[in-house]
Amino acid sequence: MYHISTKWIVDMQSAEFSCSVSHDQLSALGLVNFTHMAVAQASCLEAPRSILPIQFPVRQSGTVGICLKVSYGSLDAARALEWMEYHRLMGVTTVFTYTWDLDPPVKAVFDYYVKLGFLQAVPAQPPPPKGGPARGFRRPRYEEQAWMDEIWASNDCKHRMFGLDFVVVMDMDEFIVPKIGLDTYHDILSSAQRLHPAAGGFQFDSHVFLLNWGPTRDSPLHIGRYTLRTARPNYDGVDRNSRWAFIPDRTYFVLNNLVVPRKPYTSEPVPNQLYTLYHYRSCKPNWKHCKTRPRLEDKSMLKHELRLVEKILGLANLDQLLYNDTAYVDKLRHWWTYRVT
Q1: C or N: which end of the chain has fewer Cβ atoms within 10 Å?
Q2: SS3 letters for 159-205?
Q3: What is the pLDDT of residues 51-82, one digit of tens each?
């Protein structure tokens, strides 16, 4: 059987296939003998020679993963490093992303966190339409097709991270700040689960730090320079852009900004008293009245500034890691020297 997403009309839809194995088959052959699979149109005798190994995720309690979906192109290396270190600080267990055509500076950062065992990065080439040209993720591109490809990646996360307690689907310009009494992403989600024990999906409101408004303070961190955010949540041109987390074994299908739980589980909002989710981004050209949105000052992120700078400066070979942004490293060191003396 399969589930196919038809949210957008595109050449290549995102589909998820499942193959049922009966209890009798498992008993007769033994689970350890189910090691590989292949896809055939009509008969197993016509299956391709290339077969895929079956992965069995190990159950890990007290864990939370992040699904970054697809990372590509000219991501800022220093901002990527800030994001990784912040999420290590937040107790995240692992991060997964597909990668495509990363520029060398940010690839060096990704490679570093892969070696640490914090990041799983799998190179992926998006499939072309039948008989069509090769395609990628860099702009100019067919936007709806790229969004559909992210659905493919999100559902891959669901399976790869099946052994974790929770998975959060988010981007590298997004950060969640736990509120008083909570220290980690797992604290937030386990608190939400206690309030909603039948939940399979959890919805987060998102507040945008619009970079068009400019920095409001001096900080060596990108996320420390902005303190003006949208007053209303979930802005992406209209007020609808919430974020989601889910419990893998309670989840049927994952979309970009929506989780479909398995029955009888439900989707529930994470209470705002547990967290604030921040999205650091600029206005898109087609967003009307974006730069004049109602705004308010929010300094909640700043409580992590000192610890985050300390963690980044403590990284081995930081100069080599951010070889393309020596000014960022110099500013971190100057700020730290001034702050602690």
Answers
A1: C
A2: HHCCCCCEEEECCCCEEEEECCCCCCHHHHHHHHHHHCCCEEEEEEC
A3: 788 888 899 999 999 999 999 888 999 999 99
Residue 259 structure tokens: 């989780």
For the chain, strand residue ranges (E) read: 2-4, 15-17, 36-37, 52-53, 64-73, 94-102, 119-123, 166-169, 174-178, 199-204, 206-210, 228-230, 243-246, 251-255, 258-261, 266-269, 275-281, 295-297
Q: Are strands 52-53 and 36-37 parallel, antiparallel or unpaired?
A: antiparallel
Token pair belonging to 228? 């003006």
Question: For the chain, how far is it from start to end, CA to CA, in angstroms?
Answer: 64
| Domain boundaries 58-340, CATH class | alpha beta
pLDDT surpassing 50 at residue 131: yes
More confident residue, 100 or 77: 77
Average pLDDT, the chain: 90
Distance CA 143, CA 252 (A): 25
Q: Please tell me the number of Cα atoms within 13 Å of 259 on its side-chain side.
A: 33
